[in-house]
Amino acid sequence: MSPLIVLVGPMGVGKSTVGQLLAERLGTGYRDTDDDIVAAQGRTIAEIFVEEGEPAFRAIEKQAVREALEGHDGVLALGGGAILDPGTRALLAGHRVVYLSMDVDEAVKRTGLNAARPLLAINPRKQWRELMEARRHLYEEVATAVVATDGRAPEEVTRAALDALELKEA
Q1: What's the pTM?
Q2: How far apart are CA 136 and CA 83, in angstroms?
Q3: In this model, does residue 95 exceed pLDDT 90?
Q4: What CA–CA distance (Å, rounded) separates 23 from 76?
């Protein structure tokens, strides 16, 4: 069993929204590893970060991604930082991975860069830029296709992802 499509990209880019639309259009299931983590841990990701720290969260996330890649055959969305782990990047090899990209202005519009994002609590614009400088090449490394989301409605992004992967709707 293997996902039909895996979505990666920064927080707030629309992986959940586009993922659900892709699943609907392809007549398959949708799964989000962040949702898996929250369900398994019984607390929010922000709470895990505060209570245990980022390294503990990343270990939990790595396991959640591994399980989802092995146990889901629909559309799978990964958390924004999942690609930081070299083992996770290796697991993504051979999968159809779509990197949903956006610039900082779009990130501000979509997320408000609010405090609910634990990695963006102080000086969110600067931190978002720094996160993207550290991560962009990793998203690109694992991507089969890159789809820009700036100024596009979720339906447009969904269509662009299907076209990029040459997949037909169910």
Answers
A1: 0.89
A2: 10
A3: yes
A4: 9
Q: Are 115 and 49 in contact (CB under 8 A)?
A: no
Contact predicate 70/3, CB 8 Å: no
Which has the closest alpha carbon to 37: 89, 90, 81, 75? 81
Q: Which residue in the block uniquely carries the two structure tokens 């890159």?
A: 146
94, two tokens:
């051979």
Give residue-wise pLDDT tens across range 131-170: 888 899 999 999 999 999 988 999 999 999 999 998 887 7
Contact 94, 12 (CB under 8 A): no
The token pair that represents 118 in the structure block:
């634990």
- 3-state secondary structure (DSSP) of residue 123: coil
Among candidates 46, 88, 44, 98, which has minimal Cα distance to 67? 88
Cβ proximity of 151 and 109 under 8 Å? no
Do the beta carbons of residue 124 and residue 116 sit within 8 Å? Answer: no
84 touches 58 (CB < 8 A): yes
